């Protein structure tokens, strides 16, 4: 049994230990506290691994797998430029003649032999889990405000453990596919590793995993794999086969020109 004096000392040391633990925890948190500007710069760097230039041509091959076997493939040539504008040309034979235009929060689809483009949403499916928004949007920094959330070790596509920052992305524009994104980036390089993509309802829509390769002698995202937890036997892979600087005339970025333009060579 402790005497009264020993009990006082014991109580004192317990309180001191709690204070020290709290201080260490606070210092640890402080060491990982980043300003809003720093976190947005992290996000911009993560974006740069997907797309270097504001005006570019991106040749995307989308493959739907079922039970790890190829089910369908489609090719899309995406012409993107500043101010969240993209023109998507459908190149596969089964979709020949289709075109899609994104101007900020607005999307139009032009079908062959129709006089006018129809309005669509960014969540409309193209193939498997790949949606209109997944194909046409190649940057987060314009649509989301990011905040640092946690340190975490996660596995990359090869199964290797990587020290990562988890960022919380909240949409600041109305027409995005996902209201919220949990994004994990490499702690050293800010390369995007994984993302959980949430709808406005709060439901997890899909998970994205990013594959790293080399483009123009620099590390780059060469593929994005989209997974659906409800259908684990299926996965959709978007391969970025070619990314080059490219500028189209302004006329191609107008809905009225979609039905009149000849885009077979694009």
From TrEMBL:
<keyword id="KW-0449">Lipoprotein</keyword>
<feature type="transmembrane region" description="Helical">
    <location>
        <begin position="12"/>
        <end position="30"/>
    </location>
</feature>
<dbReference type="Pfam" id="PF17131">
    <property type="entry name" value="LolA_like"/>
</dbReference>
<dbReference type="InterPro" id="IPR033399">
    <property type="entry name" value="TP_0789-like"/>
</dbReference>
<protein>
    <submittedName>
        <fullName>Outer membrane lipoprotein-sorting protein</fullName>
    </submittedName>
</protein>
<feature type="domain" description="Uncharacterized protein TP-0789">
    <location>
        <begin position="83"/>
        <end position="260"/>
    </location>
</feature>
<keyword id="KW-1133">Transmembrane helix</keyword>
<keyword id="KW-0472">Membrane</keyword>
<dbReference type="InterPro" id="IPR011220">
    <property type="entry name" value="UCP028205"/>
</dbReference>
<keyword id="KW-0812">Transmembrane</keyword>
């Amino acid at each position: 049994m402790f005497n009264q004096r020993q009990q006082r000392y014991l109580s004192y040391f317990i309180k001191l230990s709690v204070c020290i633990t709290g201080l260490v925890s606070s210092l640890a948190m402080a060491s990982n506290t980043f300003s809003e500007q720093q976190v947005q710069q992290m996000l911009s760097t993560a974006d740069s691994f997907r797309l270097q230039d504001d005006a570019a041509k991106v040749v995307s091959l989308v493959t739907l797998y079922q039970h790890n076997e190829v089910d369908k493939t489609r090719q899309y040539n995406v012409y993107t430029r500043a101010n969240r504008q993209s023109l998507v040309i459908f190149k596969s034979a089964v979709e020949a003649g289709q075109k899609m235009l994104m101007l900020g929060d607005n999307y139009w689809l032009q079908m062959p032999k129709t006089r006018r483009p129809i309005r669509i949403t960014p969540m409309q499916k193209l193939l498997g889990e790949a949606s209109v928004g997944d194909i046409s949007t190649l940057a987060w920094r314009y649509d989301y405000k990011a905040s640092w959330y946690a340190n975490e070790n996660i596995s990359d596509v090869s199964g290797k453990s990587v020290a990562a920052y988890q960022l919380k992305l909240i949409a600041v524009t109305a027409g995005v596919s996902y209201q919220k994104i949990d994004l994990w980036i490499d702690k050293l390089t800010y390369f995007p590793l994984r993302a959980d993509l949430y709808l406005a309802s709060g439901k997890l829509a899909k998970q994205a995993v990013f594959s790293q390769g080399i483009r123009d002698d620099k590390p780059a995202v060469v593929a994005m794999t989209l997974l659906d937890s409800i259908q684990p036997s299926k996965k959709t892979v978007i391969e970025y086969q070619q990314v080059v600087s490219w500028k189209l005339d302004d006329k191609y970025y107008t809905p009225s020109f979609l039905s009149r333009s000849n885009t077979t060579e694009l």
